[in-house]
Amino acid sequence: MPFSYGSRQSISRSFLGEFRPSLFLAEAMPLKWVLQWQPNPGTTVNSQILAEVSQCVEGINGVKEGRWKATLTYYKPILRDQAMSPEMPRDFIGMSLPEQPNKYYFTLRSHRIVVESDVSVQNIMEKLQSYKSRVALIFEGFQYQLGDFQLRVGKVVPSHSENLRGIVMEVEYLPISSLEKSRQIMEEFIDIWQEALSKRSLPGHFIHVEPNFSEYGLSDHYTSQHTAVQYATVMAQLIASAQAVSTVRN
User: Fold this and answer.
1) Which neighbouring-strand residues pair with 173?
2) Could you tell me the domains of the chain?
3) Per the record's keyword annotation, is Transcription included, yes or no (predicted)?
4) 127: Cβ–Cβ under 8 A, 6 or more apart, which residues?
5) pLDDT tens profile 165-194
């Protein structure tokens, strides 16, 4: 059942009440799509695919500008008793983004809530010990400039391992922050990119699953909160893929 605005406020207060997160004052920024590599059935991601993707970006005149890195953490509650408040989320995702080093983002997919807070909230959470990190993923790779587009291609690895879990690609269109106004040019760019990549005959392709941002109370003007929601969606897909592979093997 969808949550009302009042329910959103209640959950936000019970979850991060004393942190006073900025829920509605996020600054608009250039629009970004986050794409995920989808392997063909029976195949997995590997470092050679990542290298080929990076070479393809350079092959369409992408200029390498440097490295980028983002971190994502999956939190679960530390249950001290059996009676847990129904308003407290059963899990959520926390994320730090390179473009907002002083901010930290929480996404509660089950409640369709995204919260922007000060980065110091992580220290507060450690002291409160209400939630514990269960999975931490690192997204890192290289950033490229291609005309009005900025591309970031990176691997997905656990925080304490080099075991490749996935490949992501950010496509950022610098002149526009409106989701709808940029949709056509983004779709056209992705078509061109997919065509260029298909010539390398790689065992898979990039997919873009756009969340329903309005469910999270987000407007047409793009913000870092939109990015956090997209990465939370990617995280859910990675978990689902891993579970599917495990089921097939068993």
Assistant:
1) 31, 149
2) 5-249 (2.40.320)
3) yes
4) none
5) 999 999 999 999 999 999 999 999 999 999
